Amino acid sequence: MLQVGSAEDNSQKVLGSIRHVLVVDDSRLQRRILASSLKKWGLEVIEADSGDEALRICAENPPDLVLSDWVMPGISGPDFCRAFRDLETDWYSYFILLTSKSEKNEVAQGLDAGADDFLIKPVSSDELRARISAGDRVLGMQRELSEKNRLIEKALEELKLAHDAIDKDLIQARKIQESLVPELSRNFGASRVSLLLEPCGHIGGDLVGMFSPGPGRLGFYSIDVSGHGITSAMMTARLGSYLSGSYPDQNLAMERRFNRFYSLRQPEEVARILNARLLADRGVEEYFTMAYGIVDLESGALRLVQAGHPHPLLLRRDGTTEFLGEGGVPIGLLPDVPYTQIETRLEPGDRVLMYSDGFTECRTENGDMLDEDGLLDIVRACDPDLQGRAFLDALYDKLSQRMSPEFGMEDDVSATLFEFNGL
């Protein structure tokens, strides 16, 4: 029986999370006594005289709070609580069992059934009010958490849609970037240029290429734009137009002579032009490294410029090797930088390998960078009979085998291989 006290007189405040209460008791009198106090506290009350009737009510309209007697005809209070918790609903209700049982094992049985709290009969008004207030705080926190989870799920869904859109754009961007390197291998007379381009993500900041203004003359390059991702890829798209093999009138490395044919500018001049062009573009903070060479396919004369790029590797036919260049300054960092040209002569069977720092700065199993000595090791580990793309593929495979599983591929990997065999 409910013990009437002062709480009924001074507790008129409407609770924040508990508004609707279901009172379940086979005693009509007990229901009315509980309902009278609850209504005075500003709560809406529904009554049920059995667990079966209460379940039907909860399935249609789950209450915020359930006050259920323990002993009832049909299903008991704990059985009703267990069945109530099994209802498929996202709505959590606070459940208080009313019982004359106070033994610990009885309390444990009620908790196992899913009850949140207990009240020992006869119930005092003050204690009932205090337990309901405690339940109100629990429900408030639970519903606040549910709302935050809902907002998080909504934000995650929006992020997923945005990510899917970005991913779709990046896939298309990769196709566009791949179009900048339409040919991965091309013969120029008896000589050949082969290209390797492996971005570490959808798109990258490396660019390799080749072009020829006419028989016997050839230009080839390897470029690495600072940073990664979209910004670097946009820069490679611009550089691809500056060094286009399809549109010689747009190629900064070529100049038209006598309105009849195109000739190749000297590598050091090309570096100066690109440096001035990049610095003139406002808002562009990126720079790039480059190795660019031109070759006379008749004489084997090779001229190179190295602008902060890894040293090109000269692989002689007799098995000797030599790293070319002295470093140089990346393009787009400083104005009026003097670039030094490297000159050498190739013999039939000689090869020149330009590569990005994705090779030399790749971290190996022990965490150290591969560096130039490691590059020489994987070059020598390749089958000496391999040529062109097959050689580059084998070189990349050897690099992958040396790559640290912990760090993986952290940078774009690219290379340009020129194999000289004359015209």
UniProtKB/TrEMBL annotation:
Keyword Hydrolase: yes
Coiled-coil boundaries: 138-165
Residues with PTM 4-aspartylphosphate: D69
Entry keywords, A to Z: Coiled coil, Hydrolase, Phosphoprotein
Domain Response regulatory: 20-136
InterPro entries: Bact_Sigma-Reg, CheY-like_superfamily, PPM-type-like_dom_sf, PPM-type_phosphatase-like_dom, Sig_transdc_resp-reg_receiver
Keyword Phosphoprotein: yes
Alphabetized PROSITE patterns for the sequence: RESPONSE_REGULATORY (PS50110)
Transmembrane annotation, as ranges: none
SUPFAM superfamilies from the UniProt entry: CheY-like, PP2C-like
One Pfam family this sequence matches: Response_reg
SMART domains attached to this UniProt entry: PP2C_SIG (SM00331), REC (SM00448)
Protein name: SpoIIE family protein phosphatase
